[in-house]
Every structure is written in C-alpha cells, then in structure tokens.
Structure to design on (334 residues):
C-alpha cells in the first residue's frame, strides 16, 4: 500500500515511522505546512515528499493520514473525503462542536471511510475490560474510574489551540468509557483548577480537571486529568462491578508508589509520554487503518463516534465554566 501523511510534528513523525514499519505499507509520502520540515523528515526516514496536500492526495495514495495541528484537521478531513481516499484523522476532528457535527454529516453522506485516532480502543488492557463487561464477568458495573495524567505540560503555545483539558485530554477517557461499556453519557458535572503555569489561566483553561458522569444505565464515572503528574504518564481505566473489578493500565509501570511499609509494587520503570505508554496500541491502530483502506473492514472509530466523545467534553467544559450539571441532551447531536 501507498500511504500519504500530512503533519510531521511530534505525533506525525511518530506515525510516519510506525507506518513504514508495517508489512502492509510499501511506500509513504509526507507533507507539511512547513515544507522544509517535511523534506527533512522524509530524508531521515526514507519516505517520499510532496510539496503540498493537493500533490500528496494526487500522488496515487491508498490511504491518507492526518497528523497535522488541530486547527487544520477539519479542512484536511474534508479534502480527504472529497478525494475519495480512505482517511485516518487524529483527534479531534475539529475545534468546535458545530464543525464536528458538520463533518459527521459529511461522513454519513459519503462512501469514503474515515477512521478517527482514539488509540485506547486498540490497547490490550482496554479491550480486555470491554470483553469482560460484555461477558458479564464483572456483574453489573456500578462505577468507572478513568484518568489521563500527563507527567509534564505541553509547550505554552499549544494550550490556546488545544480546546481545553476536557477536549484535549479527557476526550480519550470519554471515548474509552463508551468503548468499554457500550453506554452513552446522560449528564456531566465538572470542575478544574490551576496551580501551575500562568499560561493555562491566560488561555482560559485549567491544568487539572475532574468530571462526574452519569451513563444512561445509571453507571457512575469518575474522570480526572492533569498536566502535572510528576511520577510519570498515568492513563488507567477501572471498571468496578458486583462480581469484581478489572483495571486497564495497572502494571509495573504504574506512576505511583505505595505508602505501606514493605510494598514494592510497582517496581517501574514508568512511562514519560503517551507515545511510550501506547506504542503497541498505535501500531495496532494503524494496522487496522490499513485494513480499512483496503476495504476489508469498516472503520472501528467513525466521526460519529468522535462526535459523542466531543459532546461529553463540551458538556464538561460548560459545566466547569457555569458551575452546574449539564445534561447531554442539551448538547447538539446529529
């Protein structure tokens, strides 16, 4: 297969190397708004280079991977769909709810498959929790705990375009909750605060957040996020049921230490970044996209799926700003 990728920043260069390591990918063409960066990365990894997106889409590619900065996602996704090229897009598909709704409608009207990059769906631990819930191994699930805790914050320039902590970090948790439970969110109450850098305040954001979600079947979900988890990158999901509890992300790399005497678990080492934590999941995710691009399987995560996670993030953002419970019925849907 011949794959085109736009965006060669941190996640884009990471995806480019992953794609070239797949048996299904014979050649890779890269492009970037910073053409010099695209040329440099292409030379470093042995990929081809296209001067712009039109040239990339017209180069005979079988699949199109969008890993550019968030503000560019929506227009690039429109271009991929218009070209009829199976498209993979990193989350979020757009910066606003209205634009996400527009793209979900565009997807529904098109025959071009679109795969949105929620890599936790391809993590073995999250898949095991999903299977356990579906098989009734845990009994009735009454509580879900999910967290996204970054070790260190991103660069200050990233925050104003991130969409805020609930749309940027916890949107992964919101999608994972839907994925493992098969349930939709009914309501959200959220809060947040700042004890770190001033640039979060300046951008109207928080550096730590928490949300209480109620699912339509009555399950309670406790969700947290922070940009300052000094112990390491910590992403987990716990499903607690009447018969037992199962946790994704509970292993030797867990970014915490016990206060109990004599307890040596977890021994470490921990993870520093999400790319380290989810490297196998990213390989599985892009392998799955290759199958989508070949027409062998439907998209495992559509724009319509991404919309539901974004709606929950939107409800949480409204909640912490307005200090109230926000019903999901209040947030626009298809």
């Amino acid at each position: 297969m011949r794959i085109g990728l736009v965006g060669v920043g941190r996640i884009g260069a990471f995806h480019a190397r992953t794609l070239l390591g797949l048996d299904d990918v014979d050649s890779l063409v890269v492009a970037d708004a910073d053409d010099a960066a695209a040329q440099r990365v292409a030379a470093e990894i042995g990929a081809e280079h296209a001067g712009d997106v039109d040239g990339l889409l017209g180069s005979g590619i079988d699949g199109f991977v969008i890993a550019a900065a968030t503000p560019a996602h929506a227009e690039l996704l429109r271009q991929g769909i218009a070209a009829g090229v199976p498209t993979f897009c990193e989350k979020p598909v757009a910066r606003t709810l209205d634009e996400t709704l527009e793209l979900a409608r565009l997807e529904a009207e098109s025959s071009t498959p679109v795969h949105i990059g929620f890599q936790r769906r391809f993590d073995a631990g999250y898949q095991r929790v999903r299977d356990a819930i579906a098989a009734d191994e845990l009994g009735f699930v009454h509580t879900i705990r999910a967290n996204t805790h970054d070790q260190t914050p991103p660069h200050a320039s990233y925050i104003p375009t991130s969409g805020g902590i609930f749309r940027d970090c916890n949107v992964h948790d919101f999608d994972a909750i839907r994925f493992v439970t098969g349930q939709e969110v009914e309501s959200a109450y959220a809060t947040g605060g700042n004890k770190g850098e001033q640039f979060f305040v300046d951008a109207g954001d928080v550096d730590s957040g928490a949300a209480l979600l109620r699912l339509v079947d009555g399950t309670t979900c406790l969700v947290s996020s922070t940009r300052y988890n000094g112990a390491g990158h910590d992403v987990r999901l716990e499903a607690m049921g009447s018969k037992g509890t199962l946790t994704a992300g509970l292993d030797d790399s867990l970014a915490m230490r016990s206060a109990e005497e004599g307890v040596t678990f977890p021994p470490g080492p921990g993870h520093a970044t999400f790319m380290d934590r989810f490297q196998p999941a990213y390989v599985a995710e892009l392998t799955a996209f290759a199958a989508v691009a070949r027409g062998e399987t439907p998209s495992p995560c559509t724009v319509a799926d991404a919309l539901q996670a974004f709606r929950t993030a939107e409800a949480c953002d409204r909640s912490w700003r307005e200090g109230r419970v926000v019903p999901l019925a209040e947030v626009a849907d298809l």
